[in-house]
């Protein structure tokens, strides 16, 4: 087949993807370029799903919970291909690769002019932590990502607003470690929204009770050092 990145006919390999945690009903396959050693396409029931395409039924600029199999495949591409390969996480900024979501995680995509440009995921209250059997006592923002070419446009702050609207009467947790980028967004938000300073928490999945810390208190401590 013709690889658009290599601009020539190349050898490819096709892998069937197990995306049961996303409850995808169709057949999903990933195509990789052997000659160039990179990703080419993801196919859903023999249809190419391209994260750079414009989808006419998603023209509203908004955060929207995933609904269709196509939405779910786009989330997979963003979280497991685009993010690690094109916006590689940097450990010194407390960024990390993202594990596949659990079945009950809430996943939302950011649509911009018909393109899926980012996502965030939430673990609902009561989600059990596999390693400790503890359960989260509040919804946890577990992952968040916006493609680098769309950053510094306020989409990170939109995540906070969207989560608050979804869980208006609950405290909100953020998975530890919080990346430097998200911490900056949280600082700016909490500086101007005092009512949330006692509602945003940093929480690790290894020991919920001990690790739970108010993000505002952490920011104040950082300012003193």
UniProtKB/TrEMBL annotation:
SUPFAM superfamilies: Acyl-CoA N-acyltransferases (Nat) (SSF55729). GO terms for molecular function: acyltransferase activity, transferring groups other than amino-acyl groups. InterPro entries: Acyl_CoA_acyltransferase, FAM169, GNAT_dom. It comes from the Eukaryota. Residues 101-170 form the N-acetyltransferase domain. This is N-acetyltransferase domain-containing protein. It comes from Lasius platythorax. The lineage of its organism: Eukaryota, Metazoa, Ecdysozoa, Arthropoda, Hexapoda.
